[in-house]
Specification:
Blueprint: H1 9-15, H2 30-34, E1 40-44, H3 50-58, E2 63-68, H4 71-80, E3 89-93, E4 109-113, H5 131-138, E5 145-151, H6 154-166, E6 170-175, H7 191-198, E7 204-210
Parallel strand pairs: 1-2, 1-4, 2-3, 4-5
Antiparallel strand pairs: 5-7, 6-7
Helix pairs in contact: 1-4
Length: about 210
Protein backbone atom coordinates (compact mmCIF):
# COMPACT_ATOMS: atom_id res chain seq x y z
CA UNK A 1 0.00 0.00 0.00
CA UNK A 2 1.42 3.36 -1.04
CA UNK A 3 1.15 6.56 1.01
CA UNK A 4 1.83 10.20 0.31
CA UNK A 5 5.08 11.14 2.01
CA UNK A 6 4.71 14.18 4.24
CA UNK A 7 7.80 16.33 4.80
CA UNK A 8 9.12 16.20 8.39
CA UNK A 9 6.43 13.70 9.34
CA UNK A 10 8.65 12.18 12.02
CA UNK A 11 9.14 15.57 13.68
CA UNK A 12 5.44 16.42 13.54
CA UNK A 13 4.54 13.06 15.06
CA UNK A 14 7.25 13.28 17.70
CA UNK A 15 5.96 16.61 19.00
CA UNK A 16 2.43 15.37 19.66
CA UNK A 17 1.51 14.95 23.34
CA UNK A 18 -0.45 11.83 22.33
CA UNK A 19 2.56 10.06 20.84
CA UNK A 20 4.72 7.89 23.10
CA UNK A 21 8.21 8.32 21.67
CA UNK A 22 9.93 5.79 23.94
CA UNK A 23 7.38 2.93 24.08
CA UNK A 24 9.85 0.22 25.09
CA UNK A 25 10.27 1.98 28.44
CA UNK A 26 6.62 1.36 29.26
CA UNK A 27 6.55 -2.39 28.84
CA UNK A 28 4.47 -3.72 31.76
CA UNK A 29 3.83 -0.10 32.80
CA UNK A 30 1.09 1.09 30.44
CA UNK A 31 -1.49 1.24 33.21
CA UNK A 32 0.86 3.53 35.09
CA UNK A 33 1.15 5.78 32.04
CA UNK A 34 -2.64 6.01 31.74
CA UNK A 35 -2.97 6.45 35.49
CA UNK A 36 -5.69 3.84 35.92
CA UNK A 37 -6.41 0.10 35.68
CA UNK A 38 -8.99 0.31 32.89
CA UNK A 39 -8.80 -2.25 30.06
CA UNK A 40 -6.35 -1.50 27.25
CA UNK A 41 -7.45 -1.93 23.63
CA UNK A 42 -4.82 -1.85 20.89
CA UNK A 43 -5.34 -1.09 17.19
CA UNK A 44 -2.62 -2.32 14.84
CA UNK A 45 -2.22 -0.30 11.66
CA UNK A 46 -4.33 2.64 12.81
CA UNK A 47 -3.65 4.64 9.64
CA UNK A 48 -5.11 8.14 9.87
CA UNK A 49 -6.65 7.43 13.25
CA UNK A 50 -10.39 7.89 12.63
CA UNK A 51 -11.31 4.64 14.35
CA UNK A 52 -9.10 4.80 17.43
CA UNK A 53 -9.84 8.49 18.08
CA UNK A 54 -13.59 8.00 17.89
CA UNK A 55 -13.40 4.86 20.03
CA UNK A 56 -11.56 6.86 22.72
CA UNK A 57 -14.26 9.53 22.58
CA UNK A 58 -17.07 6.99 22.77
CA UNK A 59 -15.65 4.79 25.54
CA UNK A 60 -13.84 6.97 28.13
CA UNK A 61 -13.53 4.06 30.61
CA UNK A 62 -11.31 2.12 28.20
CA UNK A 63 -7.70 2.98 27.40
CA UNK A 64 -6.89 2.96 23.68
CA UNK A 65 -3.54 2.68 21.93
CA UNK A 66 -3.13 3.17 18.19
CA UNK A 67 -0.01 1.78 16.50
CA UNK A 68 1.16 2.76 13.02
CA UNK A 69 4.54 2.25 11.38
CA UNK A 70 4.09 4.89 8.64
CA UNK A 71 4.71 8.30 10.20
CA UNK A 72 3.18 10.14 7.23
CA UNK A 73 -0.09 8.38 8.04
CA UNK A 74 0.17 9.25 11.73
CA UNK A 75 0.43 12.94 10.88
CA UNK A 76 -3.24 12.86 9.89
CA UNK A 77 -4.19 11.47 13.30
CA UNK A 78 -1.98 13.93 15.18
CA UNK A 79 -3.51 16.88 13.33
CA UNK A 80 -7.02 15.66 14.13
CA UNK A 81 -6.15 15.61 17.81
CA UNK A 82 -5.16 19.26 18.01
CA UNK A 83 -6.98 21.01 20.86
CA UNK A 84 -8.67 17.78 21.98
CA UNK A 85 -8.46 16.26 25.45
CA UNK A 86 -8.50 12.46 25.40
CA UNK A 87 -6.59 11.13 28.43
CA UNK A 88 -7.51 7.56 27.46
CA UNK A 89 -5.64 7.66 24.14
CA UNK A 90 -1.98 7.07 23.24
CA UNK A 91 -0.34 6.66 19.82
CA UNK A 92 2.81 4.77 18.90
CA UNK A 93 4.92 4.97 15.72
CA UNK A 94 6.26 1.42 15.70
CA UNK A 95 6.47 -1.86 13.79
CA UNK A 96 3.68 -4.29 14.72
CA UNK A 97 6.05 -7.23 14.27
CA UNK A 98 7.91 -6.11 17.40
CA UNK A 99 5.02 -5.25 19.72
CA UNK A 100 6.18 -7.75 22.32
CA UNK A 101 9.09 -5.35 22.90
CA UNK A 102 6.70 -2.66 24.12
CA UNK A 103 3.91 -4.63 25.83
CA UNK A 104 3.88 -7.29 28.48
CA UNK A 105 0.66 -9.16 29.24
CA UNK A 106 -1.36 -5.94 29.32
CA UNK A 107 -3.69 -5.93 26.32
CA UNK A 108 -7.36 -6.91 26.54
CA UNK A 109 -8.42 -6.53 22.90
CA UNK A 110 -6.64 -6.17 19.55
CA UNK A 111 -8.31 -4.43 16.62
CA UNK A 112 -7.26 -5.26 13.06
CA UNK A 113 -9.12 -2.72 10.96
CA UNK A 114 -8.54 -2.71 7.22
CA UNK A 115 -4.93 -3.77 7.55
CA UNK A 116 -2.97 -4.52 4.39
CA UNK A 117 -4.23 -7.91 3.08
CA UNK A 118 -0.88 -8.73 1.40
CA UNK A 119 -2.65 -10.81 -1.29
CA UNK A 120 0.46 -12.39 -2.82
CA UNK A 121 1.38 -15.78 -1.38
CA UNK A 122 5.00 -14.71 -1.04
CA UNK A 123 3.85 -12.02 1.45
CA UNK A 124 1.70 -14.34 3.57
CA UNK A 125 3.84 -13.94 6.68
CA UNK A 126 3.20 -10.19 6.65
CA UNK A 127 -0.53 -10.67 7.22
CA UNK A 128 -1.62 -9.66 10.71
CA UNK A 129 -3.52 -12.95 11.09
CA UNK A 130 -0.62 -15.19 10.09
CA UNK A 131 0.20 -17.71 12.81
CA UNK A 132 3.50 -15.93 13.53
CA UNK A 133 1.56 -12.80 14.50
CA UNK A 134 -0.97 -14.80 16.52
CA UNK A 135 1.93 -16.18 18.54
CA UNK A 136 3.20 -12.64 19.19
CA UNK A 137 -0.26 -11.58 20.34
CA UNK A 138 -0.17 -14.41 22.89
CA UNK A 139 2.69 -12.61 24.58
CA UNK A 140 0.77 -9.37 25.12
CA UNK A 141 -2.79 -10.47 25.89
CA UNK A 142 -3.51 -9.90 29.55
CA UNK A 143 -5.51 -13.09 29.99
CA UNK A 144 -8.14 -14.11 27.45
CA UNK A 145 -7.44 -13.50 23.77
CA UNK A 146 -9.76 -11.17 21.88
CA UNK A 147 -9.38 -10.01 18.28
CA UNK A 148 -11.85 -7.92 16.27
CA UNK A 149 -11.18 -7.73 12.55
CA UNK A 150 -12.79 -5.67 9.79
CA UNK A 151 -11.80 -5.76 6.11
CA UNK A 152 -13.18 -5.25 2.64
CA UNK A 153 -10.91 -7.99 1.23
CA UNK A 154 -12.79 -11.27 0.91
CA UNK A 155 -9.65 -13.35 0.37
CA UNK A 156 -7.93 -11.95 3.45
CA UNK A 157 -11.10 -12.47 5.48
CA UNK A 158 -11.36 -16.13 4.45
CA UNK A 159 -7.66 -16.60 5.22
CA UNK A 160 -8.10 -14.98 8.65
CA UNK A 161 -11.08 -17.18 9.56
CA UNK A 162 -8.96 -20.20 8.73
CA UNK A 163 -5.85 -19.18 10.68
CA UNK A 164 -7.85 -18.02 13.70
CA UNK A 165 -9.90 -21.22 13.84
CA UNK A 166 -6.78 -23.36 13.49
CA UNK A 167 -5.35 -21.42 16.42
CA UNK A 168 -8.40 -22.38 18.49
CA UNK A 169 -10.16 -19.04 18.42
CA UNK A 170 -13.95 -19.14 18.71
CA UNK A 171 -16.03 -16.82 16.53
CA UNK A 172 -18.43 -14.89 18.75
CA UNK A 173 -19.80 -12.89 15.83
CA UNK A 174 -19.28 -13.05 12.07
CA UNK A 175 -20.74 -10.78 9.41
CA UNK A 176 -20.31 -10.96 5.65
CA UNK A 177 -21.86 -7.52 5.21
CA UNK A 178 -21.45 -5.49 8.37
CA UNK A 179 -23.52 -2.48 7.35
CA UNK A 180 -26.48 -4.57 6.23
CA UNK A 181 -26.47 -7.23 8.93
CA UNK A 182 -29.95 -8.27 10.12
CA UNK A 183 -28.73 -7.99 13.71
CA UNK A 184 -26.81 -4.68 13.82
CA UNK A 185 -23.36 -4.74 15.38
CA UNK A 186 -22.17 -1.59 17.21
CA UNK A 187 -19.67 -0.07 14.84
CA UNK A 188 -17.38 2.94 14.47
CA UNK A 189 -16.04 3.40 10.96
CA UNK A 190 -12.47 3.92 9.83
CA UNK A 191 -11.72 6.37 7.03
CA UNK A 192 -11.23 3.48 4.59
CA UNK A 193 -14.46 1.87 5.73
CA UNK A 194 -16.43 5.06 5.12
CA UNK A 195 -15.10 5.22 1.57
CA UNK A 196 -15.83 1.55 0.89
CA UNK A 197 -19.32 1.87 2.34
CA UNK A 198 -20.08 4.75 -0.03
CA UNK A 199 -18.83 2.59 -2.91
CA UNK A 200 -21.23 -0.18 -1.86
CA UNK A 201 -18.58 -2.72 -0.96
CA UNK A 202 -19.47 -5.34 1.68
CA UNK A 203 -17.47 -5.09 4.90
CA UNK A 204 -16.42 -8.39 6.49
CA UNK A 205 -16.28 -8.62 10.28
CA UNK A 206 -15.29 -11.19 12.87
CA UNK A 207 -15.17 -10.99 16.66
CA UNK A 208 -12.92 -13.85 17.79
CA UNK A 209 -11.84 -14.94 21.24
CA UNK A 210 -10.08 -17.63 23.19
CA UNK A 211 -10.93 -17.96 26.86
CA UNK A 212 -8.09 -19.19 29.06
Amino acid sequence: MEYKVIKDADKIVGRSPYVVNNPTQYKNKWHDLFGNNNPIYLELGMGRGDFIINMAKTYPKINFIGLEVVDSQMVKAVNRLNNQQLPNLKLINYDAHEIDNIFGKEIDTIYLTFCDPWPKRIDEKKRFTHVNYLKIYDKIFKRDKHIILKTDNKGFFAYSLQTLSQYWYVFDRVSLDLHHDENPIPNIMTDFERRYFEEGRPIYYVDASFKN
